[in-house]
Design goal:
Trp Operon Repressor, Chain A, single chain, Alpha/beta knot, 5-stranded parallel sheet, two-stranded antiparallel ribbon, 2 domains, 225 residues
Length: 225
Amino acid sequence: MRIDIITVLPEILKSPFEASILKRAIEKKLVEIHLHNLRDYTDKSYNQVDDYQFGGGAGMVLMIEPIDKCISALKKERHYDEIIYMTPDGETLNQKTSNGLSLLKNIIILCGHYKGVDQRVRETLITREISIGDYVLSGGELGAAVLCDSVIRLLPGVLNDETSALTDTFQDNLLAPPVYTRPREYKGLKVPDILLSGNFPEIEKWREDQAMERTLKRRPDLLEE
């Protein structure tokens, strides 16, 4: 998989890909991450990529020209399955979305900034709009990092145990069951006996029951889906 991220602040996005699972995925050549500074695609003075809103109002808007130039240059090199714009009013990211995106080959992610992007970008260049929640950040960079993490960890070979992702919260519309590790007892708090029994069919049944119970209690809306 190849992910190209367009941003005005590439330095924000460097560190998430320099550690842990994402770093290993890149080193194993399971994913390519390419950061593109939008300011490299403008001929305005001072590398300007934003301007005031027509009609007045507070906040600057990213201009269509540098975005179009960047996306057009990338599309000359390869076909992209999705061109995603990170925006608070996009579809809310969920596990189903991440699962689907993990099957794609090439993705562009455009990070919004300031008051957003010229509406013509959204109407003519973007194929999908995604939000990581009903709140506003200073820019789309952190949202892009979240999206990348949720997708990359699903790629075959990224996790040491590939079955781990299949038992995550929200897979099959269920929350994950509780988990325990050593010590068996701590300050009178004990690990459930069933997990120490070695009876794996019963352990799996217990986990399924716990997942259902936890989902009914905390997120019953998932079961309605």
